[in-house]
Amino acid sequence: MARVMALDYGMKRCGLATTDELQIIAFPLDTIETAQILPFFEDYFAKEPVECLVIGEAPHKDGTPTKLEAQIQRFIKAFSKRYPEVKVDRYDEHLTSKQASEVIFFSVKSRKKRREKGLIDKVSAAIILQEYLGLL
What we know:
Strand order of the largest sheet: 3-2-1-4-5
Largest sheet: 5 strands, mixed
CATH topology: Nucleotidyltransferase, domain 5
Number of strands: 5
Radius of gyration: 14 Å
CATH class: Alpha Beta
Order of helices and strands: EEEHEHEHHH
CATH architecture: 2-Layer Sandwich
Helix content: 40-55%
Number of helices: 5
Shape: globular
């Protein structure tokens, strides 16, 4: 069975999460600089089959898109052109960064580790993915 991945897209870096082969559990995978995300997928997809990429979506409270949304739409267009066999889905990511911070606070003992810039991004992606899996 192919994996499902989640992407917490950011201006500087992206958090990534993936499922196990049975698509039961989501876990943090990595944090990649946004400019390097497509080359990362090329390497990853050569090793692992992926059937769906879930990308976080966080409009403003009034429902209008954030300024990051245009960049995400460009990424989705480039990704879909390069990997037409991989379904792209969106999922509401409101409060995932806050949830990720709480998870990290209670599960990572080292203060130095808790301050790693990319840790929140990849844990947020895992939360997005686990919630998405709950809908399937």
